[in-house]
């Protein structure tokens, strides 16, 4: 993608999400199979401390955000996909319909 003189490559920069090429089924399988402490990630998000390390998901602390409906952060998956994760309410999300719960 080019924006004037700035060129961004979503596959190389997790700060840019290429949602058009997501494989939602594969992403959900990767998140479901990850060896990751989701409750600890929620606590970290609520307290503002770093997200825990895990296997099968690489979290990006700089992307973490808290909102009334939960904790949000960017995660990179082993297949190269980058997804936003929300831990919290099952209600509507500003990110749209989730591909898994």
Taking Cα atoms only, what radius of gyration do you get, to the nearest Å?
14 Å
Based on helices, strands and strand pairing, what is the structural class? alpha+beta
Using the alpha-carbon principal axes, give the shape.
Answer: globular
Distance between the termini: 31 Å
Task: Tell me the number of helical segments per DSSP (H or I, 4 or more residues long).
Answer: 2
Order of helices and strands: EEHHEEE
**Helix proportion of residues, in percent?**
10-25%
Strand content: 25-35%
Please tally the β strands and state the result: 5
On the 0-100 scale, what is the average pLDDT? Answer: 84
- In terms of quaternary structure, what is this? single chain
Largest sheet: 3 strands, antiparallel
The strand order across the widest sheet is 3-4-5
Low-confidence stretches: none
What are the salient characteristics of this protein?
alpha+beta, two-stranded antiparallel sheet, 2 helices, single chain, 101 residues, three-stranded antiparallel β-sheet
Brief overview, please?
The protein has helices spanning about 25-35, 40-45; strands spanning about 1-5, 5, 60-65, 70-75, 80-90.
Describe the structure.
This protein is α+β, with helices and mostly antiparallel strands and 101 residues long. It has a domain at 22-88. Helix content is 20%, strand content 28%. The protein is built from two helices and five strands, in the order ββααβββ. It has helices at 24-33, 38-47; strands at residues 2-3, 6-7, 58-67, 70-76, 82-88. Strands 3-4-5 form a three-stranded antiparallel sheet. A hairpin with a 2-residue loop joins strand 1 and strand 2. The longest helix has 10 residues, at 24-33. The N and C termini lie far apart (31 Å). The relative contact order is 0.20. The model has no long low-confidence stretch (mean pLDDT 84).
